[in-house]
Every structure is written in C-alpha cells, then in structure tokens.
Design a protein that fits this description.
The complex is a heterodimer. In chain A, 76% of the residues lie in helices and 0% in strands. Chain A is mainly alpha-helical. Chain A is globular, with a radius of gyration of 24 Å. In chain B, a hairpin with a 4-residue loop joins β1 and β2. In chain B, 49% of the residues are buried. The chains are: A mainly alpha, B mainly alpha.
C-alpha cells in the first residue's frame, strides 16, 4: 500500500503542476491585456485620431499621421500579398499537388513563416531603399507582403486540400475543365477557411514593427505619398516608448491599445468564422 | 487521387499563373540569400567568417566589428527562454488534453493562442514599463537574496538589478513562445490513440503514468519539433527584446547584466550606420541570423515530418 500511496502522491503533484502551468499561462495573458487596457484607456481620447503630433515638449497632439500611414502600408501589403498567397496556394493544392516543386514550395513556405522578420526588413532595404536613396511607404508594404504571402499560401493550400476529392470528380464528370472546377467548386468549398487565413495573416502583419524600421521608417508629418517615408503605428510606438517624454509614453500606450484591440478583433473574427462555418453544416 | 490532365488553354494559363504566384516564395528566399551575401561581402572579405564570429569587439569608431557578443547574447536569451517555457508549455498541453473538463478545453486553448496574437512591440512596451520595474524592485533583489551567497551559482546573481537585463528579456521571450510549443504539443498529444491510453488505464495506472509512459513517448517527435520551432522564433524575435535587454556590447556575466542580440543590434544601429563597412557588418549579422534560423527551422520541419511518418506509415 505504501507504493500505491507514493504513486498517488506523484500523480497529484503532476496534475497540480500542469494546472499551475495553465494558470501561469493565463496569468500572463490577463496581466498583459489588463495592463494595456488600463494604460491605454486612461490616455485614450479623440485627439489621438484627428491631430498630428505636437513638437516634443508641447502638450497635446495625436497620431493621425501614424494611423493613416498604418492603414496605407498594411492596405497595400494586403493588396499585394493576398493574390499571390491565394493563387500560390491554389497551385500547391491543385496543379502542383503531386509535383516535387509543389512539395518544396510548401516546405519552404512553412520555414519562411517563421524566418525573423527583421531579416526581411534588411533585404527590402537593400532592394528598394538603398537604390532609391530614401525610405518609402512602398518598401514597407512590400516587406509586409513578403511576410504575409507564405502564411496565406499555406492556409489556402490546407483549406483547399480539405475539400473532398470526390466533389472535384463530380464536377469533372460533368465535363468541366480543371480551372473551372477550381474556381467554381473548390474555392466555394474552401472560402470560409481561406478568409480565416487572410484575417489571421492580416492580424499578423498589423503588429509587425521590425520590418518597417528600415523600410517605411517614420514621418512626423501627415503624408499620403507612398514614395516617401511614412509613419506607422508600430514604429511610432517604438519611437515614443523609448523616448524621454511622459506624454509620448502615454500616446504609445494609447496606440498599443488600439493595435491590440484591432488584432484581437481580427483573430476572434477569424475563429468565429470557422466555428460558424462548421457548425452550420 | 491522380494528377489531372490539363491540356486546354484555360488550364495551361491558370496553372502557369498559379505556378508563378507560388514561385514567389522560392524567389524571395533566393533573393534574401543573394542580397544578404552581396551586401555583407565587404565585411566578410575584410574580417573573414571565423574571425568575425569570434571577435568580441564592436567598435564603429575604430571600424572593428565582431559578432561574438550578439551571438552569445542571442543564444543565452533563447536558451533561458526555452528552459522557462518548455515545462510550462508542456504542462499547459497536458492540462488541456488530459485533465481539464471538456467544456473548458476550447476557451483555454484559444486563450493560450491569443498570447501568440499579441504583437511583439506590445510585449516590449509592457516589458519596459510594467514588467522591468517589478523585476528590479521585487523579484531580482529576492533572487539575489536567496541565491547570491551560494558558491558557484552565486556570481550569476550578482550586479545591480536594473530590470533591463538578460533575465527579464528571457522571461518576456518565454511568454511569447509558450503558445508555439503548447499548441504543437497539444496537437500531437491528441494524436495518441485512445486505445493505448485506455489499455494503460485498465491495468490501473494513474494519469501521470499514462502521460509519462504512453503519451509523451508517443508524441515526442511532435514535441521536439514544436520546441525547435519555438527556438527558431525566439532567435529572431526583435522588438520585445530590444526594449528590455539594453544594447550593451559586452558579454553578460550575470542574469542582471544588459547585453545585446543580433536582432537588437540590427534594430538599433541599422539606420545609424555611417560607413560602408559598418553597414556591411550589420548585413553580415543579418545573414548569420537568417542562416541560423533557416537551419533550425528546417531541422524542426524534418523532425516533425519524421514523427508523422513513423506513426502513419
């Protein structure tokens, strides 16, 4: 009986440990979210969105330029990234399904998803910033698109592979060519999953800072010109948080709050889409 | 599931079109390699590869550059982060799959995965303004008090606890990689056949014994893979570490020393490099980081692949 008791105690310790581990994980999440919420809300006001930054040392000001810049850079990255991602994913799951090059691209994409984003920044710097001699919004968009493409590509591939092969065969039997089958049957079956992948990849690039540091850089004035350096929320947060002024820190918190809200919204929306899609069947 | 014959014009066009889109991934990989080698060539030919790696001097004024300190800093923070994150993530994965009531499973997994959705700059802000002060006021003096006088391990708890140091950076990094390890571990643990677990329970084993002797051996490749992917992530993490590690070009001798990593050096100095050699050396750092993380991540893919092959035929 001594042995049994020992085993039971061991078991309780192990279960207790895994419970503790989960509590630690949740603790960090709640701690970080609550902290951003607390600081963000206390500095949050309308001026953040409608005013440009005040010169250092002056009261007030906002981050209108950074919000607009963030939208333009991310928006262009999405416009560049999504077609490549979806079409590439289509190749991997359909035409290139059995080919070696298809497998290779799939594996490389998996690796590219986790490659350090700052390396992408240095690459785009040498490609688009150095030859032109100045930072530009386009460079920022291209580097974000480069991070986005492998993510969308892999989710599209996975989601399209989930569409049963027999459905394609049913369409073939009616005499449809493969491209029509893909566009009219496979896309339709996989659309919810592909959309989720897109939302998650947008959530991913919306918070990226490192690749923007050397590409779109920063701009304290409002600018709609993608050829010029452009402010983004994340780089501005980095600049303000490491700066010496208290109201800079306050604005960095408020901007962090907005970013985290947007990203959590996208993430939850993406997840709900999946749940909704699969529970309605 | 055979290859579909595609002979008509529409298919030829569409397959070529999608093929080109997919090739973008390979082209960008090749582009990164070529451009980083090209840009770092000046530094590479000036210092030589091994000399660059083993030189611990980083002096823009004298134009002497070496990667030893950022490399060591990168590895120390990464390994410490893994040591902290692995037990916690495995505990979470086991709790979600085996112990927690089924109603709580989905919310708990989503909550843990939300940790991965938080952008690294937020981790950095939080680390700098909230976590670092807590570390320097309470936790680090406490650790120093407990461990500071013990022989051998005492010295790594010496120094003034400022909060901007190796320990804080590693803890913040560990929080960021918990979701990677735990979600992959959870997915592979779920692959363990129910029959195996039930037969173990039927001979009277406890939950812990099932976990230790049935589930973990069964899912070990997936878990290794998850750990290595997390390692790759931690190596390349920039913003969170940039806030809380300081950017000090010196080897850390204790947990409470500031130091530098490859990513932190890049983030802080890339736009300030004023000579070609300086710039080229930064590119060489970037190339090193890229090659290291590429190798690490390929290895992870290989292990996960090997694991899934072993069990599925």
């Amino acid at each position: 009986m001594e042995r049994l008791r020992k085993r039971k105690i061991q078991n309780n310790i192990a279960i207790g440990f895994s419970l503790l581990a989960s509590i630690i994980g949740l603790f960090w999440l709640v701690f970080i979210l609550f902290d951003v919420l607390r600081h963000g809300l206390s500095f949050f006001d309308l001026n953040l969105f409608i005013e440009d930054p005040a010169p250092p040392g002056f009261e007030g000001g906002g981050m209108r330029n950074a919000f607009i810049g963030q939208f333009m850079i991310t928006g262009c990255a999405i416009v560049i990234g999504i077609p490549f991602g979806i079409l590439g994913g289509t190749f991997l799951s359909e035409y290139g399904r059995m080919t070696k090059i298809g497998r290779l691209i799939s594996v490389i994409s998996d690796i590219m998803i986790s490659v350090p984003t700052i390396v992408v920044g240095t690459f785009i710097y040498s490609l688009m910033v150095k030859p032109l001699g100045h930072f530009s919004g386009w460079a920022g968009s291209v580097s974000l698109a480069m991070i986005m493409i492998p993510v969308t590509l892999r989710t599209t591939e996975d989601m399209m592979s989930l569409v049963p092969w027999s459905i394609r065969e049913a369409a073939f039997a009616l005499g449809a060519p493969y491209y029509k089958v893909i566009i009219q049957v496979v896309y339709r079956g996989a659309i919810a999953g592909i959309l989720t992948g897109i939302l998650l990849s947008i959530a991913r690039i919306a918070g990226e800072t490192a690749p923007l540091l050397f590409t779109s850089f920063n701009n304290s004035f409002i600018s709609l010109n993608m050829e010029e350096p452009m402010a983004s929320l994340t780089v501005t947060i980095f600049q303000y948080a490491t700066g010496p002024y208290d109201d800079w820190h306050a604005m960095a918190w408020a901007a962090s709050f907005v970013i985290i809200l947007a990203i959590l919204l996208l993430t939850v929306l993406g997840r709900l889409l999946v749940i909704f899609k699969y529970s309605s069947k | 599931m055979k290859q579909v014959k595609t002979t008509n014009f529409g298919d030829r066009f569409f397959s070529f079109f999608t093929f080109c889109a997919a090739m973008v991934v390979l082209v960008s990989l090749a582009g990164i390699f070529i451009s980083l080698i090209f840009e770092s060539w000046e530094s590479l030919s000036r210092f030589g590869f091994f000399n660059f790696i083993f030189t611990d001097d980083w002096n823009p004024v004298k134009e002497v550059f070496g990667a030893a300190i950022p490399l060591v800093g990168t590895f120390i923070t990464t390994i410490l982060a893994l040591l902290i994150a692995i037990p916690i993530s495995l505990g979470i994965a086991v709790f979600i799959t085996e112990i927690c009531p089924s109603k709580l499973k989905a919310p708990l997994s989503i909550a843990i995965e939300l940790l991965a959705a938080i952008p690294s700059i937020i981790y950095g802000m939080w680390g700098l303004f909230t976590f670092a002060p807590i570390m320097s006021e309470y936790i680090e003096p406490g650790l120093q008090f407990v461990f500071g006088d013990i022989p051998f391990i005492g010295p790594i708890f010496q120094g003034t606890p400022l909060g901007i140091d190796v320990l804080t950076a590693s803890i913040v990094l560990s929080i960021m990689i918990i979701p990677f390890i735990s979600s992959i571990a959870r997915d592979t643990i779920l692959l363990t056949p129910q029959v195996l677990k039930e037969s173990a329970y039927s001979i009277g084993t406890t939950e812990w014994e099932v976990i230790k002797d049935v589930i973990l051996p069964y899912s070990k490749f997936g878990i290794y893979g998850g750990i290595i992917i997390a390692l790759g992530r931690a190596l390349g993490e920039t913003m969170a570490v940039a806030f809380v590690l300081g950017n000090r070009h010196a080897f850390p001798t204790s947990f409470f020393d500031a130091t530098s990593t490859i990513t932190v050096t890049l983030a802080n100095e890339f736009t300030e490099a004023d000579s070609n050699l300086y710039m080229s050396s930064l590119y060489l750092l970037s190339l090193l980081l890229f090659v290291i993380s590429f190798i690490v991540l390929s290895f992870a893919k290989f292990i996960v692949h090997k694991g899934s092959k072993k069990w599925n035929g």
